[in-house]
From TrEMBL:
<dbReference type="InterPro" id="IPR012768">
    <property type="entry name" value="Trehalose_TreZ"/>
</dbReference>
<dbReference type="InterPro" id="IPR017853">
    <property type="entry name" value="GH"/>
</dbReference>
<dbReference type="Pfam" id="PF11941">
    <property type="entry name" value="DUF3459"/>
</dbReference>
<feature type="active site" description="Nucleophile">
    <location>
        <position position="244"/>
    </location>
</feature>
<dbReference type="GO" id="GO:0005992">
    <property type="term" value="P:trehalose biosynthetic process"/>
</dbReference>
<feature type="region of interest" description="Disordered">
    <location>
        <begin position="46"/>
        <end position="73"/>
    </location>
</feature>
<comment type="similarity">
    <text>Belongs to the glycosyl hydrolase 13 family.</text>
</comment>
<dbReference type="GO" id="GO:0005737">
    <property type="term" value="C:cytoplasm"/>
</dbReference>
<dbReference type="Pfam" id="PF00128">
    <property type="entry name" value="Alpha-amylase"/>
</dbReference>
<dbReference type="InterPro" id="IPR044901">
    <property type="entry name" value="Trehalose_TreZ_E-set_sf"/>
</dbReference>
<feature type="binding site">
    <location>
        <begin position="242"/>
        <end position="247"/>
    </location>
    <ligand>
        <name>substrate</name>
    </ligand>
</feature>
<feature type="binding site">
    <location>
        <begin position="306"/>
        <end position="310"/>
    </location>
    <ligand>
        <name>substrate</name>
    </ligand>
</feature>
<keyword id="KW-0963">Cytoplasm</keyword>
<dbReference type="InterPro" id="IPR006047">
    <property type="entry name" value="GH13_cat_dom"/>
</dbReference>
<dbReference type="GO" id="GO:0033942">
    <property type="term" value="F:4-alpha-D-(1-&gt;4)-alpha-D-glucanotrehalose trehalohydrolase activity"/>
</dbReference>
<comment type="pathway">
    <text>Glycan biosynthesis; trehalose biosynthesis.</text>
</comment>
<protein>
    <recommendedName>
        <fullName>Malto-oligosyltrehalose trehalohydrolase</fullName>
        <ecNumber>3.2.1.141</ecNumber>
    </recommendedName>
</protein>
Length: 581
């Protein structure tokens, strides 16, 4: 087979393959590339040495059997026989489920997670969104400090296990989305700078030098990232990618990296005959991100909508610190604005940022399904000092209200693993750094961060303590017990209603009508012939729905249809879905 590597500044590159050493030659057709032919098969170990330096993993390694610091291994993609003939599943009409492989089960592997996919099919979700799978130091971690962007973390089961997982998911009718991180790598195990200008000092990020998207050599860096993205979609038959923190991608070129990536993914979708999509995490509130390229946008297919989360969180909890401050002034009003306009900050002043933020979204042109709505995510739970879920502080009734707003609202819903049964386990920040200095730096940094917000150091879990990860594993005995079973049944009913009522998947934001009472803490909205009402107060609320005939489709507590004057009496901490044709 031909081994190849990009090392534009090297004077000499050698291949180390199964104990043998071979000098590599310049590729006459590609500047900066080195090539050599050598016999190899699936599992063959190899690495590259630049200018007689240490042997390093292949930047495009498909497998790292011994972790990020070990040699790479050849992967023969043709060895797996796909069992399912999968034609894909589009994003519009989807219900996503964010899943962390290392804590979804106690075993923490892809194979163990695959055994639990039947639960998701029964729940009614359509896509599993896997948190990052690229190799990282140690065994357990969130995955956002991965390296080897083409490989699968070996403790999860490696590339073969991912293919088995995808096959199992597709067999159950579930699409699979993968969270990928292009904005930084490492730091531990990141050897890319030894090969070429993968990073640039022209821009700086919270993680140091920026990934090189616009400096000299950036053509190859962009090709490296796009090639990795396409490999996940092509070789593993994934249905989409979630792009981490795209606002941290510094790029001054005329054709933005994200525009180039979206064009490449759309081309692969056309070639494969499967719908493929990109979902961005972005805090810019810029609708150009999800506007088609032909209309002057970047062409991504959707983005997470933190504004909806923040409005919902403040309405449920009353929290007002940090970025919640603007939403907490009038949380029901903030919810109403996001439900009808997508963003809360659409050019308004953000006290958290100390400036105006965002850009208005054209409701007539942007489909609501291009925004993801959620009450919890790995970020919003795990970046709390103790990783406490909403279930740690809210009643089952308020959790039901949160589910009602997420699953009947206009956005593509996304759940965070375990929320569907009000999991009693936290989801905390954990690492397994093998570098003692880095481990201690992360531990101290985490405690300093929360000490500034009034937390005692001893109350902040140690990320390096294995017990922190263990506490974060789901307890699969909970769904059969109360109150978890009742919450789970409510999620199932709401997801079923999305399938039964076409109005609940109508992507037209301009057609949504919202009413609310800030003091009484209730909110109601209408989508076509369906009206949704939530009462977040402990006391009953009287909500005017109009005098059209009404049928109760679902209610957390027993609720009678509206009276003759069209008033719906909703018990405290209760969500209701009503049909009014």
């Amino acid at each position: 087979m031909q081994f190849e590597v990009w090392a534009p500044q090297a004077g000499r590159v050698t291949l180390h393959c199964d104990g043998a050493t071979r000098a590599m030659e310049h590729d006459s057709e590609r500047a900066g590339w080195w090539i050599v032919e050598e016999e190899a098969r699936d599992g063959t170990r190899y690495g590259f040495a630049v200018d007689d330096g240490p042997v390093r993993p292949d930047p495009r390694s498909r497998r790292q059997p011994d972790g990020p610091d070990g040699q790479s291994a050849v992967v023969d993609q043709g060895l797996h026989t796909w069992r399912e003939q999968w034609s894909g599943r589009p994003l519009q009409g989807a219900v996503l489920y964010e899943l962390h492989v290392g804590t979804y089960t106690r075993e923490g592997t892809l194979d163990a997670a695959a055994e639990r996919l039947g639960h998701l099919a029964d729940l009614g979700v359509t896509h599993v969104e896997l948190m990052p799978l690229c190799p990282f130091p140690g065994q357990h971690g969130w995955g956002y400090e991965g390296v080897s962007l083409w490989a699968v973390h070996e403790p999860y089961g490696g590339p073969a296990a991912l293919k088995r997982f995808v096959d199992r998911a597709h067999g159950l009718g579930l699409g699979v989305v993968l969270d990928v991180v292009h904005n930084h790598l490492g730091p531990s195990g990141n050897y890319l700078p030894e090969f070429g200008p993968y990073f640039t000092d022209q821009h700086h990020t919270p993680w140091g030098a920026a990934v090189n998207l616009d400096a000299p050599g950036s053509d190859e860096v962009r090709a490296f990232l796009i090639g990795s993205a396409l490999a996940w979609l092509r070789d593993y038959r994934l249905d989409g990618l979630r792009l981490d923190a795209v606002h941290a991608l510094a790029d001054t070129r005329a054709v933005d990296f994200l525009e180039e990536l979206s064009a490449a993914v759309d081309a692969l979708a056309a070639e494969s005959g499967r719908p493929l999509f990109l979902i961005a995490e972005s805090d810019r509130n810029d609708p150009r991100l999800i506007t088609p390229r032909g209309e002057g946008g970047l062409g991504l297919h959707a983005q997470w909508n933190d504004d909806f989360h923040h409005a919902l969180h403040t309405a449920l909890t009353g929290e007002s610190q940090g970025y919640y401050a603007d939403f907490a002034r009038a949380p029901a009003g903030a919810l109403a604005k996001t439900l009808t306009g997508g963003f809360f900050h659409d050019g308004t002043y953000s006290s958290f940022r100390g400036r105006r933020h965002g850009r208005p979204l054209d409701r007539a042109r942007v489909s609501a399904h291009r925004l993801l709505g959620y009450s919890q995510t790995h970020d919003q739970v795990g970046n709390r000092a103790q990783g406490d879920r909403l279930s740690a502080g809210l009643s089952p009734g308020l959790l039901a209200c949160a589910a009602t707003l997420v699953l009947t609202g206009p956005f593509t819903p996304m759940l965070f693993m375990g929320e569907e049964w009000a999991a009693g386990t936290p989801w905390q920040f954990f690492t397994d750094h093998t570098d003692p200095e880095l481990a201690e730096a992360v531990r101290r940094g985490r405690r300093r961060e929360f000490a500034a917000h009034g937390w005692a150091e001893e109350d902040v879990p140690d990320p390096q303590d294995p017990a922190t990860r263990d506490r974060s594993c789901l307890d699969w005995a909970e769904p059969d017990r109360e109150p978890h079973a009742r919450v789970l049944a409510w999620y199932r009913r709401l997801i079923a209603l999305r399938r039964e009522q076409p109005d609940l998947t109508d992507p037209d934001l301009s057609d949504i009508k919202v009413a609310h009472d800030e003091e009484a803490r209730w909110l109601a909205f209408r989508r076509g012939d369906v009206c949704v009402a939530v009462n977040l107060a402990e006391t009953p609320a009287e909500i005017p729905l109009g005098t059209r005939p009404a049928q109760i489709l679902a209610a957390w507590e027993p609720v009678a249809p509206p009276d003759g004057e069209g008033v719906l009496r909703v018990p405290g901490e209760c969500g209701v879905v009503v049909a009014q044709p």
